[in-house]
Amino acid sequence: MFDILKERFGYDSFRIGQREIIEDVLNGQNCVAMLPTGGGKSLCYQLPGYILNGSVLIISPLVSLMEDQVQQLRNRGEKRVVALNRFLSYREKRDVLRELASYRFIYASPEILQSPLLIEALTRINISLFVVDEAHCISQWGHDFRPDFLKLGLLRQTLGNPPCLALTATATRQVIADIVTTLKLDDVKQHIYPLDRPNICLYVQYVQTVEEKITTLKHLVAILPKPGIVYVASRQWAETLSEVLREDHRVSYYHGGMDGEQRLLIQQQFVYDQLDVICCTNAFGMGIDKPNVRFVIHFHLPTQPEAYWQEVGRVGRDGNESIAILLYAPGDEQVGQTIIDMEFPTMEQIVYALNALRHGQKETGLTDVQQRLLLYWLEQMDKQEHIHTLAKQLYARMEQRKKEKLTKWIFMQRWVTGHTCRRRSLLSYFEQQPLKNERCCDQCGAHIHANATIERIQQIQLRPWHEELRSMFAIKVGNK
Amino acid sequence: MLQHIVLFCIDRFRGERSLAAIDHLLNGKKTAQTLQDSKWYDVSRLFGMVPIDRSRLFDVARALEADGFISQVDEHIYCTTASGKEKLRRFILPPYIDGWKYMNESSLFWKRLSLLIQTIANIIHRTSFEPIHRDEHIQSFVKRWLFQHTHIKTLARSLYEEMYELLSYVEEKDANIFVWRLTSHERIGWTNEQIAYAINEEDVAVLLSFQNVLHFMLEMTEKEAEKFPLLYSLRERKRSQLTSSAQKTWELLKEGYSLEQIAQLRGLRKGTIEDHIVEIATYIPTFVLTPFLEESKRKRIIQQARQLKTKKLRAIKELLPDVSYFEIRLALARWEREDV
Ligand SMILES: [Zn+2]
């Protein structure tokens, strides 16, 4: 085990929990594991992949996350890895299916796992381990419920109940219970590790207006050690703040509206320390394992504690002192309300979508998430019913979901306006206790540490094309 | 720049098409209507070249109208005013841009080229890197490509020379922008938007400069493939595309040269030219076989191949001692095509 850890992954020792989980996995034990973000979840199934006979099937909700993981494995020289998602063409899919057994790691999105052809192919090969990544997506109570995940229990049965490893970074006890029931995990071992990250200081900074927020942000970015991430609630804000900050620092924005190539460029610039600050929506961060991020600033209050904690978890993975600052101004409570309102369709929108579906149209006018939810619920209803009856039922369910979201939002508001230890109150949401901590939070008297010296960042100079070209190809000056 | 582009389109559409048509054109929407329009109004070079939001397009149109460069003739339909015409007089499109011609090819070529350069730069500087493109096909193409070239330093030098030559033709600014988009061992490529900010330009102008160079490269590698063999080899070989050498032979054939003359003229073996002719017969449906293969012979060859249910040259040759291998190959090349 240690040899593989060293040879394949280049580590000398395991991080917290990894060894215990891997040992259970190798013993064929069903496991649910909650490791803090950046705690090396993927190693828990990648290492067993080199010991177990057969293929490891990994179900992952996000295509970008899947791509990151596949790329990382390839970079380590692993050729027997494949990602199955809806971007594959029919021919590619057919070729992959034919040789499915030859892959050590098979990544798949839950949507593609509905394909009878694929399921059939999977039943014919030996699945040594059934991994569900981001397993909290299974639960209605989770912050990122995906109905497709509910079918994974049945899929696991179809595949002859291979040993299962369900992984998550943030889940309440209720969510974990949901994971166990849905995946039908008998005799399950739970590996719940502390979510707390003692090297991260939590700090809430109150301001009066949006303008003050911006000046405070500018000031903070100037004095804090970098690199850092600024999270915002919309694409527009990501661009605006990037514009404000880039006069003095190497800053860019990142959001889901950019094309894939430009997104990857920004991501890599950040990873290779060619950017100091990235202003982004929650589209950024998944699958990026950058150890030295020193700060994260939330310009808007996230609507869910799980999401907030995941974003905070992107700093200080190297264990060094880091800080998470949240800027809060009166009126911000409206922002969250608006976001949640927009997440759910109105009655008219539901009726419109149902009509569209009945006429076999693809354009329902709903967002992806809304549509998935609607289709899932619709499966359980009598489709012959009158559209308005269906719509009423669906609307009621949407309202119920919305209520649950609002509960989370209210928690966040109480948390931000409260006067108790930030860490203790946030972790209480996950029914956990803080680990001992020196620089805990603003309520416990922590301060924001400025950089000892305000370094002037040396910008990477853009050189004229012929110089750049010479440097790229290592052509000595003088010979042309 | 964007203002000029929109004004240019409005002018070309002569008040006969709405802003929606411009939106479809600039975003490269592949519908019959857009395709027809872009030919009819001679704006096909801009096809898919400026992918922007519709709302931004409307903003630009409003600004143009407010400045008196266009006037509204119907809902969302405008035509150019005299001052608009005047404004356009000093405007020229980037010279090499041809969105229509290269719509299927340019993005693939760019991805291959940029990943190749990133890979070479990192290999010769012995640095590790993460591929700038995730697409598995692009990655395996570059791997296979590099595998064919053993000496990396020589390769780097040759590729450098090809790039240098092409980039010296275009405007300094365009060449800079193109190279800044590339990723090397020491710098991850910059986005359009970052470059625009750095040189204080409009993002659309940067994008067009980039496309201008890219299309120039495609044009030149097509025209003078033998001068830029490495860059040419990054292009997608379509079924209808000949290798550059066969292309030369085809040009000479069309001018009426005989097989022997071409071999002599190009200093190549007769066998090589025969290979070219088989390739031409395969890919160019209009190519006439009879100067090289009598029709009666062709029929006999096909008949034998059918009977034997084989395309094995030797088996056919054994039964037809009076035909040459070259003739069999020609016949079969065409037979497959007819079969399809
Ligand atoms: Zn505290």
Automatic annotation (TrEMBL), chain A:
Keywords: ATP-binding, DNA-binding, Helicase, Hydrolase, Nucleotide-binding. Transmembrane segments: none annotated. CDD domains: DEXHc_RecQ. Residues 22-189 form the Helicase ATP-binding domain. GO terms for molecular function: 3'-5' DNA helicase activity; ATP binding; DNA binding; four-way junction helicase activity; hydrolase activity. GO terms for biological process: DNA recombination; DNA repair. It comes from the Bacteria. One of its GO terms (cellular component) is bacterial nucleoid. The keyword rRNA-binding does not apply. Residues 216-358 form the Helicase C-terminal domain. It holds the Pfam family RecQ_Zn_bind. SMART domains: DEXDc, HELICc. The keyword Acyltransferase does not apply. This is ATP-dependent DNA helicase RecQ. It comes from Anoxybacillus mongoliensis. The lineage of its organism: Bacteria, Bacillati, Bacillota, Bacilli, Bacillales.
From TrEMBL, chain B:
Residues 245-332 form the Helicase Helix-turn-helix domain. InterPro entries: Helicase_HTH (IPR029491), YpbB-like (IPR008308). This is Uncharacterized protein YpbB. It comes from Anoxybacillus mongoliensis. The lineage of its organism: Bacteria, Bacillati, Bacillota, Bacilli, Bacillales.
